[in-house]
């Protein structure tokens, strides 16, 4: 089973909660965390031994968090309009908001020896 860390960047973020449910329903083990500093998120990813860290990107600040994390671990994100900037920053996979099926498919394709 694949383990992913899904980080809620905004309090009570419904989209992140829906994505967590979809991933769990798709057979992915989700470790859910509220936003912290980039160092805290990276440390949690290491401690939890996850394959990737997921973010729902809505603001420039969220994009910066994704870019900083991408240098330390595999990051995937959902975003509208930020795809190019996120990919240029090293984010491995970018999905449109509301594309939980695409995220589940991508996560399910990760293997245990996937590059971190």
UniProtKB/TrEMBL annotation:
Checking InterPro entries in the record gives: Cobalamin-bd_sf (IPR036724)
Task: State the Gene Ontology terms under molecular function.
Answer: cobalamin binding; metal ion binding
**Protein name stated in the entry:** Response regulatory domain-containing protein
Q: Which organism is it from?
A: Kibdelosporangium phytohabitans
């Amino acid at each position: 089973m694949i383990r992913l860390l899904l980080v809620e960047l905004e309090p009570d973020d419904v989209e992140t909660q829906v994505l967590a449910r979809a991933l769990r329903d798709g057979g992915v083990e989700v470790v859910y965390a509220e936003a912290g500093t980039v160092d805290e998120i990276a440390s949690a990813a290491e401690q939890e031994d996850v394959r990737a860290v997921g973010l729902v990107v809505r603001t420039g600040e969220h994009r910066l968090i994704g870019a900083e994390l991408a240098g330390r671990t595999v990051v995937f994100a959902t975003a509208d309009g930020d795809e190019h900037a996120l990919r240029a920053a090293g984010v491995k996979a970018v999905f449109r908001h509301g594309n939980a099926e695409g995220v589940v498919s991508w996560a399910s394709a990760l293997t245990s020896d996937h590059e971190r």
